[in-house]
Amino acid sequence: MENATRFNTKAKPTWCPGCGNFGIQNAIKKALLSLDLQPHEVAISSGIGCSGKIPHWINVYGFHGLHGRTLPVATGLKLANHKLVVIAEGGDGDGYSEGMGHFIHACRRNVDMTYIVHNNGVYGLTTGQVSPTGDRGFASSTTPHGAIEWPLQPLALAISAGANFVARGFSGDSERLGKLISEGIQHRGFSFIDVLQVCVSFNPSKSYKWYQQRVGNLEDEGHDPTDRTKALEAVFRDDGRLPIGVFYRGSEPAHEEGLPQLAAEPLVKHDITDVDIRPLMEEQV
Ligand code: SF4
Asked: Which residues lie with the beta carbon below 6 Å from any ligand 1 atom?
């Protein structure tokens, strides 16, 4: 493959040594290379958090946005130029707390993009507050006596909100995660990938070893990803294992397929030099 370093930047990531974000970043690059994409064909939007810095360190179009707003930005990118491969990403705090409303509606809207959530159960950038996916009992700076709330189950939320590609990966297996991301990009419509991400600094008990002892591949178990009920059963299984892989894959048409304005060419290519927008502007004042 020609120029396998084309997605590298000169700047080096500033994540803590051993952070799971390195594995996710590698997996994204592997996926883009495996699909033979070029930097100008891809855009990544991110929210706020350690994970939000990814657009700085992958050589594609990037937009580092506001907390919880990666999905609206990604939606705008895709609708403005639906020929771009669009990846939205952020952390579990960003996506499942500040951005939860956007997440649910992105699942049912089905705009063709891939949403990758770095799920480490903690707000790392702000030095260790429990997040919506933090375990019950997790002692953090905001829960010194242990969290008393139940953690969210994002995969179940996505499946029940109508998402057509719902998967889970592990930051310690960037080979398999890269394949999942590549599958997500190729899927037409909204692809959601929750990634079990190690935060060595603020959630060290969920270490690489801890995950390696628990993750197992759904595919090896003969899971049928076309069955929504079976997908939910796989999410809620209670045998101490953490399945990774594709839980659910549907085939609903992508949002853009219902927009005739996009049929001919991307909106950014529409010639608007002779369009008089003054009446429209006057209407708004
Ligand atoms: Fe990674 Fe946690 Fe360090 Fe943030 S605080 S860079 S998530 S290890």
From this structure: 15-16, 19, 21, 50, 120, 124-125, 199-202
